[in-house]
Amino acid sequence: MFDKHLNDAQPRCYIVLDIESAVIDRAGHRRYQAMERWTGEPDDPKSRRGHKPEEDSLKTPRWPFQTIVAVSAMILFEHSQGSIDVSRFETFAAPDLDERGIVLGLYQLLSELPEHAEIVTWGGAWHDLPLLKNCTLRHGLSLPRGRAWMAWSGEGKANHLDLCRILGAGSKMKPTHMSEYAASLNIPAKITAPPFAVAGLIKAGDFESVVEVVEGDVITTALILARWRKLLDPRARCDVAEDRILRQVEELMGTRRYIPALRAHRKMLRQRLILEAANDSDPVEAERPVAAQPTPSSEELPKVVGE
């Protein structure tokens, strides 16, 4: 695979994708309860014994009953010399679009990209892609050109890089949270709102904040992808790729509330690069260990929604 990656005549194209969803319409879940003859009484034997209410599918709607309220996609193109650029960063979201419109917007974007473009997610094989397929079925839609593999799975030889799966141990370990993995690499994550706040933001109709959450997750996934590329290609400079992605996101999304935190992180990266370059030119300084620079403190970050 290493040699194949280096010898590819066509540089890779990545579609970094994330979805936000919530249970908005409970009609489908009520149909399920009726099918199961569930009465809702505390002693109803059809409830899942031993399960907490949030784990009992008869009491708490699971993912098939969720409505997609926002989808964000960042398009990245590799260059033959190993660098990478953001070509597009688009978000389709409520209240401007309903669920059908959101998915159609995404599918139109996918149809405009090369068929070899690889979808990149964090946990998307278990969350994002099943949600997309469920929504596609509900609205009587078809998958976009070149994405027929999505009808079967998001794993195996499909054009899908689920970073949660490939950087972990597949399904043999409990999945790692994206923010958990990002923190281990000193990559910013969950800048504008914590994960537990998203459902409340959707319920409150604060879709501006929801959009910033879904875009923030795409940015974090893209930065993790920039690190992953180094595993395959020695030409790939993680620090340079990260700086380029952050600079181009700032140019495209300059008014978003997550930009100050990303700008501070980029400044820290550049200071480290300057220090490393100075050490490389001074053999005495090069022998001294360089202390790791932390992600900007909470005082430097914008106010977190939901706190």
Strand order of the largest sheet: 3-2-1-4-5
What is the total number of structural domains? Answer: 1
Level-2 CATH architecture? 2-Layer Sandwich
Low-confidence stretches: 1-6, 297-307
Query: How widely separated are the two ends?
Result: 45 Å
Mean pLDDT: 86
The main β sheet shows up as:
5 strands, mixed
Task: Output the structural class.
Answer: alpha/beta
Helices, by number, come to 11
CATH C-level name: Alpha Beta
The radius of gyration is: 21 Å
The name of the CATH superfamily reads Ribonuclease H-like superfamily/Ribonuclease H
Instruction: Note the beta-strand portion.
Output: 5-15%
What quaternary form is this? single chain
**SSE series:** HEHEEHEHEHHHHHHH
- At the fold tier of CATH, the topology name is Nucleotidyltransferase, domain 5
Compute the number of strand runs. 5
Helix content: 25-40%
Shape: globular
Q: What are the defining features of this structure?
A:
11 helices; five-stranded mixed sheet; alpha/beta; disordered N terminus; Nucleotidyltransferase, domain 5; 307 residues
